[in-house]
């Protein structure tokens, strides 16, 4: 293998794949990145056997070939090189990296030992715009659980319902659901949330379409020159739609910034009580007041004006409330609930695409 | 069953010919789903492994299958989850509780900490406790959250499959009454006894029984090693408050192998506070150890006295009848019926440790299954004697020395003419041990201990045999000496 590639391209490609490679695995080669020439392009791949990312970059290839080298070392090294052309040459299992100023040799492991990347040969294929997907993921993924004892909840559900593509995640204390537009395919995918974090990273600020292909075990996302394949989570996702309340006894519409402020202040006094804050809506005063008590420190009450219908109070975890508010993008938000023990719904005032549910705390 | 053992044999061979990392990554969780003359179908846990197995290891698998007598014309790999996760899936389908709910008020009435942490994070991230559950999916009443507190409890250990014998009936009864009313009686319960006699089984059974009655009870089972590790992590990440809150809100705290806390001062202090918090809130504490509290070295006095506060129970090595019952019950769980000869042989060949007894049984069953034989006395004697753990170096002299050391009498006195009571009993025990462990003849035993008459030896062995049936102290002395001998 012998080729020339720009530092910028190589660095970008390593940036998107190297994170997947990790050294904690039992199989040493999984800490490596696979560098391979194909059709006058260079592909870099890494996998942890749950997900695999491949990034294609342009290169001037003189001799075809492939090798795997330690991902971290390679990334750190290439990252610290100046802009310019880098020469890569393979000599046995040693990769020689050469620029005007630097020369180094990295010991690799033969590419034959690298796991065979799964290929999706048959399966449905569809596209979605990168910006929509990114927005949706940002609003949903964080709600997924990281408790491995219930694997389905560590996944993000991507499914079609009523001709619309929806994304949902829950850790059983809160639930986020986003409608990301029309789609006529029949889709039901349980994608590990960790893979979705990687996808978010790859999506960057791109505006292209994302091509998605899936069969019943894996799903492939193609974003420009990057491909991400992940296994799907096996299991039955709870029928979450039943759990989103549709009518409410109490509802408030108010400025998002106001609610964020009062919640933040209140959460300072809620550290001792696992973030527990009590929100009270008053129709008479048209206010939302929020109260937290720290038995040692004191207590706090804050108020914000709001358009309120119905009376009532509810106790929530302020961390969950702030998480939800930070991903709502409208100026005004709607905060609604049915009594002390039932789910609270947060959504944007100007559209119904995003639903965020938080379970109350026992008061 | 047959294809599983065939696949085990295949994997065993493959393990030797590929690197450890490759084996663990690619082969460990595979299964042979079915095979006939045409195809063998191999279940792979993950789609990422399939490609590599197909392209790189198909040849090796085919070769190894051939060696084990089957030669399918083609190999197929399909992604299928392990049987275990299949079971999980079914459970989930039944009881997926979507937003789970905890309504049971904590029994720790006085404890203010509402911090309920998920188990695998060891209390590092505080999870709030959701209110009672209008959000649970229809038809699923039970809280899924009890999972979080089912830490470390293995559902296999129940009272039903615990075999009660003379050595453990007190412990069993105490545990059962605790399971009915945690925190009311015998708090703390301190179980101690040698290796592999069922301490862990019993204390886990309490956890399971409590959970069966009240699925929302917060039952925490930790080994001391785990407790220490989590504490160290908590110190490192400055989360000691979370750590304390996690443990101090348990309804039942079960700590296994508590003797390992010896010598860890800071740890003992933390444990002391946890202990006090729980004990004051009338929450049940169950401890197990291989020694009684007063014999754990470098244990702080305040802990020592607290450990012995409730009830300390010595678990004894099971007697012959109990061991027979154990063998029979274990065989039944494997759907095998053993005849009495075999059972008695097994119960006789492993006397000190139930775990080893189970091991011997498993060995026998595996041997018979692989060769398609019925277990019989001749098979069991050939299998077990081959594996019998009697160290060859054990000599009569060592037994006498060990016995003398145990009673702290000079070995010369043991061999000499003295007939004081404190010499005679150790001497008799030594004779008994020579007979039971080395199967020496009576005249030989008499000679070893400097006696002229072999009837002395006969009398001694019989006496100890008889007394050990009646006297628990003597039994524990015997087993202690034995344990040291084989340690």
Helices and strands in order:
The complex is a heterodimer of chains A (363) and B (487).
Chain A: E1 2-6, H1 7-17, E2 32-38, E3 41-47, E4 51-58, E5 60-63, E6 66-70, H2 71-79, E7 85-91, E8 94-98, E9 103-107, E10 124-129, H3 130-140, E11 155-161, E12 164-170, E13 174-182, E14 188-192, H4 193-203, E15 209-214, E16 218-223, E17 226-231, E18 250-255, H5 256-268, E19 276-282, E20 287-294, E21 298-305, E22 307-309, E23 312-317, H6 318-327, E24 332-337, E25 344-348, E26 354-358
Helix pairs in contact in A: 1-2, 3-4, 5-6
Chain B: H1 2-17, H2 20-27, E1 31-35, E2 39-44, H3 47-67, E3 74-79, H4 83-95, E4 116-117, E5 126-127, H5 146-149, H6 169-180, E6 189-193, H7 199-213, E7 219-223, H8 224-236, H9 240-248, E8 252-256, H10 265-280, E9 284-289, H11 301-307, E10 311-315, H12 320-333, H13 340-349, H14 354-371, H15 377-387, H16 396-407, H17 411-415, H18 421-438, H19 442-448, H20 454-470, H21 472-486
Parallel strand pairs in B: 2-3, 6-9, 6-10, 7-8, 8-9
Antiparallel strand pairs in B: 1-2, 4-5
Helix pairs in contact in B: 1-3, 6-7, 8-9, 12-13, 12-14, 13-15, 14-15, 16-18, 18-20, 19-20, 20-21
